[in-house]
Design a protein that fits this description.
The protein is an alpha/beta fold. Among the domains are: 105 residues, Arc Repressor Mutant, subunit A; 154 residues, Rossmann fold, CATH 3.40.50.300; 93 residues, no CATH class; 80 residues, Arc Repressor Mutant, subunit A (Orthogonal Bundle); 117 residues, Serine Threonine Protein Phosphatase 5, Tetratricopeptide repeat (Alpha Horseshoe), CATH 1.25.40. A hairpin with a 2-residue loop joins strand 1 and strand 2. Helix 10 runs parallel beside helix 12 and helix 20 packs across helix 23. It is globular.
């Protein structure tokens, strides 16, 4: 079988716009990481290695799922995901299906190999790709800056807007990439509108966890000892905050360097400032010929951009003086050159020069205090703006309120302020697009519009100057409210993929509308309604931290308003209660929040939220160690859901009921329920659903089933189902579902099965999710199991670290599996020789198990109690306890725990010379499992049984 680790060194496969590095599980498109599941990357690995050959389905299944049986549908789902990730604008085909045989990689591939010593972490090479044509006239600056970086800890390139600072930063990053062993990380701060989010942007850029307590410490911890360059682009609007962050990073991390772009210095220690000049310009009397003019960077840029509008343009000797004069008029500012060059063919060079001269002579900057070059750029923008008709200018101002892409209906809504109908709006957009002030492109079959950032900033300023800003922001907020109220109403009737494609990219518009609504001049009621309407999107984006903070703000506003509709308040409280469930430390008032939500649901007659709040309350009861109370509440849940014909909610109630039954020891009943539900969600290719009850339905059912299969002794199938749940959650793109599947099921089950390598891989996957969205509920549990793995590996001090992690886990009110967790720590301490600590903890485990009716883990608690008694020399007491453990486990159908207890007792019996008793016991316990079942505890029991039987046969033979 071909190995996934094909050969030593680093191999890179290059095809189309992609670079694929299998050893790092890294797929790049244009220098940016392509997010895709691990199985899909494994499929790509084998296909590119055998490019041009047919790779059979069996070969792919064996390569991607070694030693594991999976259905062929898993392969189809992952091939489909891979094809989607590789799909480009030209829809070039990379993978061909060979009917009845398999797949073939059909694209041309270039293979590059490097020595394996290149260990640069791929996650930190976040440097966007750059075309050589983008760096015209800046070779000297880039070379000079690269030289300065060799001795400067912090180098800031300072200049006005439009000078090309970002382009130079990117070019510099590429030129020095080889000099930094951990790479170059480019962080764009231009999209950060509020200084409080600057640290989050930097954390996201370097891949650090965004902990609310101290995200900067997380960044420092991640980058400790790393030799790398951080590029902080567009710092000016966040200058005090970025200065403070940069200062702390430089003081704490002596091996990093910072390169910043800004309109003003950061003014911190270690900073060296480089003031960026304009592009080189021909002086008066220079540049009178084409050859002479093209020696200057400004002219070369002008010609390149003019050629972009008409490919056959070549600078002539006749045009050279005009182009040289135009470049001088706009002071060699790259952005101004690009804008003017784009007008070359509509107006012609003589007219352009004349218009520039008139505009610059007549233009007055008024109260502006910006530097001269910045005033010149504004003048250029102003000139382009003044060429518009009044209607065009008014429409441009109005659409500047949109944060990113917008559609025709958005613009039409804003244009109602101008009394435009749809036809007038379409005409206005077309004219603005033709004049390069609005960009238009097709995505997902729809025409989308956007403004360049510089254009948007300029148009926004004009909006304020005209006294239209407040009215425009109000209209924008009402439009976004209508959009997301529609989105909320469509959620249950539309496919998730289409819904997300239409609404997910509008999140920045939501944020901007909320900022205005809750401002002194805003409309708090509108903000409250908008917050409630956006809740479904936050759920699907797994942005629970943001949702929680926004909801808290809206709830404060409801107190000020006093007459907020109950239904809106109900939605906010439901989101608050739901968000509480994911807090690092479960708040004590979570139960009260769910009850308040249910009360409001009853008062407003909203059955949907009554159902949701009952689910939340029952879930809370079960997961805080009150399973019988939860079961009682689930009966009301089912009655209400059935009365509404809400069969999806009924299924969820039965899943939760099965979960509670597992913990109280009613294993058979729980398994019957979950097998029925699993039959309805059998295929991995079933449509991905919305996460109505905090987890995607197909994922949740598989997770619960995996737990009951494990405890029933079907360990192999349990791990197959667990991996299927994790895979489906990853495909869904829902971080909460994926992390829940990993942290609550995959990690503990793989650990209890004795597969510690898988446990560590699952924990690594959770850490990666934590870099995308830091949701605290799983943090303490993951730290606990990391310590548990180290304890199993016999690392010094790990058992006592595990004990400390247990206390943190309980302090966070992670109660549901606390008795089992206590027993795990007790066994680890016993193995480490800490007998007294082990006795104390197993005593606490017994008390907790009784208080919580946690019968599911009592056999394990009793087994470990017996081992402690045995260590104390109390052989008879230990045997009584072990037999009790076996009896309890057998009565529940908990074969996974029964075999553990039987193995422990058999070893004791063998040690006492009672070989026949040990043989009979193991024969009975092992006989309960299918022959093909295999996991460490069962394997050890079978091995001991075989040795006893062989010994008995030898004795008979000898006699």
């Amino acid at each position: 079988m071909e190995s996934k680790h094909h050969q030593p060194g680093i191999t890179t496969y290059i095809f189309g716009p992609f670079r694929f590095i299998p050893q790092r599980q890294l797929l790049l498109r244009g220098g940016l990481t392509v997010r895709i599941g691990g199985r899909a990357l494994d499929i790509l690995t084998l296909l590119v290695r055998r490019a041009g050959d047919i790779v059979s389905k069996n070969e792919l299944l064996t390569f991607c799922w070694p030693s594991t049986y999976v259905h062929e549908s898993n392969l189809k789902v992952n091939v489909a995901a891979l094809r989607k990730a590789l799909a480009g604008e030209e829809e070039e085909s990379y993978i061909a299906t060979v009917a009845g045989r398999g797949y073939r990689f059909v694209a041309e591939i270039e293979v590059q190999r490097a020595e394996s010593s290149d260990t640069r972490p791929p996650a930190l090479q976040s440097l966007p790709n750059l075309q050589l044509t983008e760096v015209i006239g800046r070779a000297d600056e880039i070379s000079s800056l690269a030289e300065k970086l060799k001795h400067a800890r912090c180098l800031t390139i300072v200049g006005p807007g439009g000078m090309g600072k970002t382009t130079i930063a990117l070019a510099l990053g590429h030129s020095v990439l080889a000099e930094y062993s951990e790479g170059v990380c480019f962080i764009d701060l231009s999209t950060v509108g509020d200084a409080q989010y600057a640290i989050a942007a930097i954390a996201a850029g370097v891949g650090a966890r965004q902990r609310s307590e101290d995200t900067l410490s997380e960044i420092i911890s991640l980058l400790h000892g790393q030799h790398m360059l951080l590029i902080l682009d567009n710092c000016e609007h966040l200058s005090p905050t970025v200065s403070s962050i940069a200062k702390r990073l430089l003081n704490a991390l002596p091996t990093i360097r910072i390169f910043a772009t800004s309109r003003e210095p950061l003014q911190i220690e270690h900073e060296e400032v480089y003031r960026l000049p304009h592009l080189s310009l021909p002086g008066p009397g220079e540049g009178t010929t084409a050859a002479g003019a093209l020696e200057f960077g400004a002219v070369r840029l002008f010609v390149a951009r003019a050629s972009g509008r008409r490919a056959n343009y070549v600078l002539s000797d006749a045009d050279a003086p005009l182009v040289s004069a135009i470049c001088r008029r706009i002071d060699g500012i790259p952005l101004a050159i690009e804008m003017v060059a784009s007008k070359t063919f509509p107006y012609g060079l003589p007219t352009l020069l004349a218009m520039l001269e008139q505009r610059f002579l007549l233009f007055s900057n008024g109260e502006r205090t910006a530097p001269l070059r910045q005033q010149t750029l504004l003048a250029t923008l102003d000139w382009s703006y003044r060429l518009l008709s009044d209607d065009e200018a008014a429409l441009l101002r109005l659409v500047s309120v949109f944060a990113g892409m917008f559609r025709l209906e958005d613009a039409t809504g804003m244009a109602e302020a101008l009394s435009f109908d749809a036809t007038q709006t379409i005409d206005g957009l077309e004219r603005l697009t033709s004049k390069s002030l609005i960009c238009a492109d097709y995505q997902d079959g729809a025409l989308n519009y956007r403004l360049l950032e510089s254009t948007r900033a300029y148009a926004t300023e004009r909006l304020s100057d005209e006294g239209e800003r407040e009215d425009a922001l109000r209209r924008h907020a009402w439009q976004i409210l209508a959009l997301f109220e529609r989105a909320a109403s469509e959620q249950e009737s539309r496919k998730k993929t289409g819904w997300m494609a239409e609404y997910a990219h509008r999140i920045d518009d939501v944020r901007n509308a909320m900022s205005w609504a809750f401002s002194p001049n805003g409309d708090q009621m509108l903000g409250v309604r908008l917050t409630a309407a956006a809740i479904p999107l936050w759920y699907e984006l797994s942005s629970l931290n943001e949702m929680q903070s926004r909801v808290e703000r809206a709830l404060l506003a409801t107190k000020d308003l006093g007459d907020c509709p109950k239904e809106v308040t109900m939605k906010l409280i439901a989101a608050k209660a739901s968000g509480m469930s994911f807090a690092q430390h479960l708040p004590l008032d979570t139960e009260m929040a769910w009850k308040e939500c249910y009360k409001l649901g009853v008062e407003s007659g909203n059955a949907k939220y009554q159902i949701f709040s009952l689910w939340g309350l029952c879930s809370y009861l079960i997961y805080t160690g009150r399973p019988r109370e939860g079961l009682a509440g689930l009966k009301d849940f089912i009655s209400l859901a059935e009365s509404q014909s809400d069969w999806s909610a009924v299924d969820e109630a039965y899943r939760m009921m099965a979960t509670a039954e597992i913990y109280i020891g009613e294993i058979s009943s729980a398994r019957r329920r979950l097998e029925r539900l699993a039959a309805q969600n059998r295929k991995l290719t079933d449509p991905i659903r919305f996460a109505r009850f905090q987890a995607e339905k197909g994922v949740a059912v598989r997770c619960s089933l995996s737990l009951v299969l494990w405890i029933s002794g079907e360990v192999t199938r349990a791990m197959q189902v667990t991996r299927a749940a994790v895979e489906r959650a990853e495909i869904s793109g829902h971080v909460v579902s994926h992390s829940n599947a990993l942290a609550v099921f995959a990690v503990p089950l793989s650990f209890w099965c004795g597969d510690y390598d898988s446990t560590e891989r699952f924990l690594e996957a959770i850490d990666l999710n934590g870099q995308r969205e830091d949701i605290g509920v799983w943090r303490e549990s993951c730290l606990f199991f990391k310590a548990a793995v180290r304890a199993k590996q016999g690392q010094p001090g790990a058992a006592h670290e595990l004990k400390a992690r247990l206390r943190e886990l309980i302090a966070a009110r992670n109660i549901l599996r606390a008795p089992m967790h206590y027993s795990m720590v007790a066994e680890a301490l016993l193995d480490a020789g800490s007998l007294t600590d082990a006795q104390d903890l197993i005593g606490e485990a017994k008390v907790l198990a009784i208080d919580q009716d946690a019968n599911w883990c009592l056999p394990e608690i009793i087994r470990i109690s017996a081992l402690i008694e045995l260590r104390c020399g109390k052989s008879e007491e230990a045997e009584i306890l072990l037999r009790e453990s076996i009896t309890r486990a057998s009565a529940m159908g908990a074969l996974a725990l029964e075999i553990r207890a039987s193995l422990s007792l058999s070893r004791k019996l063998v040690g006492e010379g009672r070989l026949d008793e040990a043989c009979d016991l193991l024969n009975t316990s092992c006989g309960r499992f299918r022959r093909e079942e295999a996991f460490p505890d069962l394997a050890a029991a079978r091995e001991l049984l075989l040795s006893l039987q062989s010994s008995d046969e030898r004795s008979v033979s000898f006699a």
